[in-house]
């Protein structure tokens, strides 16, 4: 009997201890929840910006008109000197102290997103609007292609077709520049004696579409904004008296055969 009684007392003591531990755990959990809620409310309160009333702003401006300094005014109202300075500068510029209304809807793309797409376009001028939309979508900003194009235009970029220029080496460019400089002041009689040549490409099959890229104003013939062309098929020369017959290219590398310059000029003389 004593053994059973002893076991019953032990069991009740254990149950009381478990209940006591459970009560302590619930109480601690309740305290931690209250602390979290209190900290969240404090953070929410701190996130709000304090805005001075219009009456306080008017008093700050009146004290400034009376000749009082920024620091003295700020100290009198318990604010920072930068706050008083901002209110006074707004009054000097707009002659009002109330908050100005926001001009229009907010931008869909943040300044960081604008920097990202501008960096992408600078690195790859032929980036399409669809590529930029996908990049912004991956970063968490969903916009349309029209919005992306408008943003780039506000930054001074414009979508233009690529200028096609001859495929020239640096030595060829220098030689052409020297020729133009040497003959800049030649008379019209001298230019009549010059025999010119031209070449063009006629593509029967395949894609020969126009490519576009983003560039700033007056930068269409910048070397990075052009595309070199080659593989021309037809050639002819001309002068002030007429043109020669149209000749087809003999090789497949885009080079003009050397014997074309020795062709008789009967076509020009007869023309």
From TrEMBL:
Region (Disordered): 248-271
Residue span(s) of domain Sleeping Beauty transposase HTH: 46-97
Domain called Transposase Tc1-like: residue spans: 115-185
InterPro entries (alphabetical): Homeodomain-like_sf (IPR009057), HTH_SB (IPR057667), RNaseH_sf (IPR036397), Transposase_5 (IPR052338), Transposase_Tc1-like (IPR002492), WH-like_DNA-bd_sf (IPR036388)
Name used for this protein in its record: Transposase Tc1-like domain-containing protein
Species of provenance: Cirrhinus mrigala (Mrigala)
